[in-house]
Amino acid sequence: MTNNLVDTRIVDNALEACGVKNMEDATIRDITRVVNSVEATTGTRFIRMEMGVPGLPPPEEGTRAEIKALEAGVAQFYPMLEGDPGLKEEAARFVKNFMDVDVRPEGIIPTVGSMQACFAAFMLVTACRKERDTVLFLDPGFPVQKNQMRVIGKPYAAFDLHDYRGERLGKKIEEYLEGGRVAAILYSNPNNPAWVCLAGEELAMIGELADKHDAIVLEDLAYFGMDARVDLSRPGEPPFQPTVGRYAKNFITIISASKVFSYAGQRLGLACISDALYHRHHDDLQERFGGDGTIGYTFVNRLIYTLSSGTTHSVQHAARAILEAANEGRLDIAERTREYARRARAVKELLLARGFRLVYDQDLGQPLADGFYFTFTDPGTSGGELTRRLLYYGVSAIPLRDAGSTRPGVRACVSRLGLERVGELADRLARFRLDYPPSGEQNGLFTNIP
Amino acid sequence: MTNNLVDTRIVDNALEACGVKNMEDATIRDITRVVNSVEATTGTRFIRMEMGVPGLPPPEEGTRAEIKALEAGVAQFYPMLEGDPGLKEEAARFVKNFMDVDVRPEGIIPTVGSMQACFAAFMLVTACRKERDTVLFLDPGFPVQKNQMRVIGKPYAAFDLHDYRGERLGKKIEEYLEGGRVAAILYSNPNNPAWVCLAGEELAMIGELADKHDAIVLEDLAYFGMDARVDLSRPGEPPFQPTVGRYAKNFITIISASKVFSYAGQRLGLACISDALYHRHHDDLQERFGGDGTIGYTFVNRLIYTLSSGTTHSVQHAARAILEAANEGRLDIAERTREYARRARAVKELLLARGFRLVYDQDLGQPLADGFYFTFTDPGTSGGELTRRLLYYGVSAIPLRDAGSTRPGVRACVSRLGLERVGELADRLARFRLDYPPSGEQNGLFTNIP
Question: Which end of chain A has fewer CB within 10 Å, C or N?
Answer without folding.
Answer: N
